[in-house]
Amino acid sequence: MNMQFVEDLSSKLRETLSKSPAGDLEKNIHALLQSAFTKLALVSREEFDVQTEVLRKTREKLDALEKQLSALEQAQK
């Protein structure tokens, strides 16, 4: 789900409600939907990809440090 989905859903609801006496509910429904999706703590694909790359680099550094530690331990023996 992304913000485009929320906007499309909101737009369809707004259009439907504007044609009915329940038009005043549109603002409340939009706010309710925004709140619900915000609580899901969703991230964009771009942010996910950035964090995946950060994690990959961190893993590489950790692997290198583990190798250095292992070599130092072997040198002490």
Automatic annotation (TrEMBL):
Signal peptide: none annotated. Pfam families: BMFP (PF04380). Pathway: Cofactor biosynthesis; ubiquinone biosynthesis. One of its GO terms (biological process) is ubiquinone biosynthetic process. Keywords: Coiled coil, Cytoplasm, Ubiquinone biosynthesis. It comes from the Bacteria. The keyword Coiled coil applies. GO terms for cellular component: cytoplasm. It is found in: Cytoplasm. Residues 48-75 form a coiled coil. Its main location: cytoplasm. Belongs to the UbiK family. Required for efficient ubiquinone (coenzyme Q) biosynthesis. UbiK is probably an accessory factor of Ubi enzymes and facilitates ubiquinone biosynthesis by acting as an assembly factor, a targeting factor, or both. PANTHER family: UBIQUINONE BIOSYNTHESIS ACCESSORY FACTOR UBIK. This is Ubiquinone biosynthesis accessory factor UbiK. It comes from Candidatus Methylopumilus turicensis.
